[in-house]
Fold:
Amino acid sequence: MSAVRPLSALRTLAALTALPLLLTACGYGSDAADDAKKPGVSADAKKLSVDEVRIGYFPNLTHATALVGVQEGLLQKELGGTGIKASTFNAGPSEIEALNAGSIDIGWIGPSPSINGFTKSNGKSLRIIGGSASGGVKLVVNPDRIKTLDDVKGKRIATPQHGNTQDVAFLNWVAEKGWKVDAESGKGDVSVFRTDNKITPDAYKSGSIDGAWVPEPTASKLVAEGGKVLLDESDLWPDKKFVITNIIVSQTFLKEHPDVVEAVLRGSVRTNEWINAHPDEAKASANAALKELTGKDLPAEILDPAWQSITFLDDPLAATLDAQAEHAVKAGLLEEPSLEGIYDLAPLNKVLEAAGKDAVDDAGLGVE
Structure:
């Protein structure tokens, strides 16, 4: 079983060092912050096999299934007398560490940290048990400096983190253009700067970068600062769908508490159903959750376009995760991984069948 290669020191812009770390900008919260809001548990509700399930997610619109599911009590309703302890994270690696340490049981997270967590543990730490969101990633550029896709060559483009989901996607797009970039240093035909989403808008305003390949709501924040969407990543994928957020669970917790896992999945499915049936109410609910978690909500000019670009769904879009892993290998960020067994979709398909919905596929990467 292969493992992720150690990451080199990230290249940063000297101009960025003076920028403040705006911990509450763009709807992002602090690492591993416990969510103070805990939906009430009815005293006479039936308890499942644990008193409390510990869930993790980001204070980010692409994690709106968790944000809204907690905010509206839709997850709690399915859990009955079993309580929820929610923690929020800024980055995938810290959430994977929490899962491995037993600090959380179930998490909403992106594809790259899911792959990394699975491969680093030799396939023993986690399973992907469901989907949550697709889309919400864009290449936003300074229209005075970049007018066409070909103009990206020779420019300075930010991605959120070395080897993260958007970094991999951008490096793959660059390679498909026939350009060369060293994945470790970011140097080449395009200069790639790994810049935290919290400070990317300030880097853009200062002129330190010419654009960024970033998720929402950072993309819409850049547009509000005068940027132009040059490319929506959805346009690069079949049916314009690719996994941006899925649901993972500790393999130990899955084995010992399948009733709780199934209840959380029921809550997720019903939350996505409610989001899609009531988009305006759901958008407001997600924004209220962001304000509670970070102290700052998103203004309409950022919230509205960001929300519109994200699709909430139960399918984990397994074939696109497999493709993202191949892109990371081609970029030199990942050794050839064995992803067999990364999915266990039996609990989700049981929930979907009971709800009269179609089963989802694991692209041949499920448990036997």
Notes: Confidence is low (pLDDT under 50) at residues 1-30. The first strand starts at residue 33 and ends at 34. The longest helix spans residues 258-277. Residues 83 and 163 are 35 Å apart (CA to CA).
